[in-house]
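Is MUC placement plausible here? Inputs below.
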Amino acid sequence: MTKIDQIETMILDIPTIRGHVLSMATMRTQTAVLVRIKYSDGSEGIGEGTTIGGLSYGAESPEGIQSAIDTYITPLLLGREADNVNGAIQLIDKLVKGNRIAKTAVEIALWDGLGKRLGVPVSQLFGGAVHQKLPVAWTLASGNSDTDIAEAQEMIETRRHNIFKLKIGKRSVREDVTHVARIKQAVGDAASVRVDVNTAWSLQEARWGLKGLQDAGCELVEQPVAARYRRAMAELTKGYEIAVMADEALNGPEDALAAVRENCADVFAVKVSQSGGLKRASEVIAIGQAAGLGLYGGTMLETGLGTAAALQLFATIETLHWGTEFFGPLLLTDGILAEPLIYRDFCVEVPSGPGIGVTLDPDKITAFRRCAQRSMKAVAG
Ligand SMILES: O=C(O)C[C@H]1C=CC(=O)O1
Ligand SMILES: [Mn+2]
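Reply from A.M.:
I modeled the complex. Tokens:
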């Protein structure tokens, strides 16, 4: 019987190609927590758990993710049967509350190890891929309308993206609506324009915002108000034609069920790490499907590793009405994979190799790995 022998974690700090301006933080670096599991037969599995903007997006920080794995999750798993991924997920869920991103990093490494030992992609462990490539959005978030327009036009011309998600919520509602209208006018019918408010609006602001956005030709608004304001989300979902998408409100299948029960969304942004792993994300998807909602593959701006893991799951889903935003690696100045993911013709291709289908470039890991000295600097900002 193959056993789990060793679980190693590390933090990587990778610069972004430009400032990424969100309502709650401006990112200049992305910080990823990587997991490597070593098994008794010599096989390995790798995983990633990543958040956005330190503690400004959600309740788990990169340092907290690493600590949760090293201190609490790893001791539960050492010596256990490697191939029993469900058993590991159930044990971790029983003994570790919350900490979904930490659970995700480990769970991906478990699926990756199992797929590699069996010689099949992880998509096959979820019943088989029905897509070889998925549509992929790009986020316009330079903080400047002209820069965003130039970026969008270049993406359309090079056939890299024709779906744009604009990050808004930092400026006034009126300024944001003007910004979105300018971009929509510039791209016209060549692209779909959507926005993500990252919870920045009150219900009152959101009413004005949604009205203005839909008049401007914006197709979808993501998480306009706080995750816990389910009644406000329900009012906005019912009150406007523009699609309302839940993101921060969806932390696993229980939240998905509550969102359906209370009619809080037209669309689910399903994020692997917010759900608590590939399996829990598949449960969120199933709830969304059963309720007849639209589906979208969301990202926490993972590197190629976490992005490849998401691709394995979403390649098995029949209909992703709103596509995906699996562009994380493209926001970084450098990749960490031996072979980068392929982006072309407005899509990202699903890796076909065993496990999650990617391997790491050891030189890149050394270059971006946080060491003790750098770690103090990164925490201090
Ligand atoms: O959806 C979010 O809130 C986070 C993320 C996804 C794309 C992006 O630019 O930021
Ligand atoms: Mn979002």
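Short version: The chain has a mean pLDDT of 97.
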